[in-house]
Amino acid sequence: MPTAELTHADAVTRLGYALSDSTRTRVLLALRESPAYPSDLADALGVSRQVMSNQLACLRGCGLVTATPDGRRTWYRLADPRLATALNGLLDLTLAVDPTCCGDDCTCTR
């Protein structure tokens, strides 16, 4: 069975999906600094190890991070160093944000 090619739109959609969750976003931002073990990421981000495991599995599935065995542990890093550059570019953007938008009563994402 032939595999479908990933289009540019598909790749950006995957990144958008990953960034739509604050924990996944924080993981990607942490990994742009250096590779890390899941337990260290969980501690640094204040989430359970199960939550971290689920988020890393999602990011792996999106092709954004890779896992490298290290003895009995596994460390994670960004799948491509250019992703760190892209994340830095997003952080450099200056956005005009309506402070009333995207709160609990927001209707712009529904």
How would you explain this protein's 3D organization?
The chain has 110 residues and is mainly alpha-helical. The chain has a single domain (8-92), classed as Winged helix-like DNA-binding domain superfamily/Winged helix DNA-binding domain (Arc Repressor Mutant, subunit A), CATH 1.10.10.10. 50% of the residues lie in helices and 11% in strands. It has helices at residues 8-19, 22-31, 38-45, 49-61, 81-92; strands at 65-70, 73-78. The chain has a two-stranded antiparallel ribbon. Strand 1 (65-70) and strand 2 form a beta hairpin. The longest helix is centred in the middle third of the chain and has 13 residues, at 49-61. It is globular. The protein starts with 7 loop residues before the first helix and ends in an 18-residue tail after the last helix. The relative contact order is 0.13. The mean pLDDT is 88. It comes from Litorihabitans aurantiacus.
Number of domains: 1
* Lateral strand order in the biggest sheet: 1-2
Mean pLDDT: 88
CATH topology: Arc Repressor Mutant, subunit A
Estimated structural class: mainly alpha
Considering DSSP H and I runs of 4 or more, what fraction of the residues is helical? 40-55%
Shape: globular
Architecture, according to CATH? Answer: Orthogonal Bundle
Low-confidence stretches: none
Number of helices: 5
* Elements, N to C (H/E): HHHHEEH
Ends distance: 37 Å
InterPro entries: ArsR-like_HTH, HTH_ArsR_DNA-bd_dom, HTH_Metal-responsive_Reg, WH-like_DNA-bd_sf, WH_DNA-bd_sf
GO molecular function: cadmium ion sensor activity; DNA binding; DNA-binding transcription factor activity; lead ion binding
Protein name: Transcriptional regulator
Pfam family, one: HTH_5
